[in-house]
Design brief:
Blueprint (H helix, E strand, L loop, with lengths): L2 H13 L6 E4 L6 H11 L3 E6 L5 H5 L1 E5 L2 E5 L10 E6 L6 H13 L1 E2 L2 E2 L4 E7 L13 H4 L3 E4 L4 H10 L4 H9 L17 H12 L5 H4 L1 H11 L8 H5 L12 H14 L3 H14 L2 H18 L2 H9 L2 H14 L1
Parallel strand pairs: 1-8, 1-9, 2-5, 5-8
Antiparallel strand pairs: 3-4, 6-7
Helix pairs in contact: 1-2, 6-7, 7-12, 12-13, 12-14, 13-14, 13-15
Length: 332
Amino acid sequence: MNPFELIQYLNTLVSKEIYLSTMIWGPPGIGKSSIVAQTAQEYAIGFIDVRLSQLAPTDLRGLPVPENGISRWFPPEFLPQEGRGILFLDELNMAPPAMQGVAQQLILDRRVGSYQVPDGWFVWAAGNRKEDRASVFDMPAPLANRFVHLDAAPDFDSFKAYALKTNVAERIIAFLAFRTTLLHKINPHHPAWPSPRSWVMASQLYQAELDISPVVGVDAASEFYSYTELYSTLPDLDRILSGEGAALAFPLDPGARYASTIGLTVRATTADAAYRAFRWMSAKAPTEWVQLFIADVMRQLRANGQLGAFAGYVKEDAALQEFFQQYQRMLA
């Protein structure tokens, strides 16, 4: 499943209070841990991230303390004691077999030693696969059989929605729309390679006018910088957004088309700017590019609280109303 589908699945587990232990599989850098943390934040519940690969069995089981001639195990302070939340066992299969054995009791019985996971807490885990060249151990069959297994994979549309929401650099979004295969590409021979996580890091470096190759690798960075040279050929996007783009043509080069469409989307932060860009796109661009623009800009406007105002503009424009009706029929 893609990250968006993973978010929906996890949200359903929380909203319907399904406390089955859940294991999220996927390559590194696609945002598994971030999605779990965002789920907890959305539902305003607790979130405890435990990296089992960094713990010894006694760290999870606790320490024995004598009490009336009997050893009692005092649990570690990081395990939840009350309330609701997600206990997240990250990097589960990077933990050695002895550690996984201790975790098995926590996952199956919701307890370890004398400690019991409180009602209202979800026990979820995540890990990489062997084919991702991660240093992982085999998961014992009895442990694997106790999980709901979810396979996550990188997906550009999910990344784009996140990137638009979090102000990732416009040129990086446009480049990846043009070269989606570079969204996630593990290079076993170099420590820096492109992934959704590293592209977000690259955005910060790029906006600070620093080289992005230390986070995405030399090859991906070289392609990105070559792509940015297209921006000198683009129509004046600011003129279009101000309603003065009638004489400007939509580019013919595919890379420039992505740059123009994404550029207008990122910059159309108000209803009136989005309406002017929509009018220009509908008059100048092929239908598939207008559809790409409208799907992204509506997501932007919804997040900015501008969707109602934009709908008001469209309601007064018969030609754009017709386009919207055709667009809705296509979606249906």
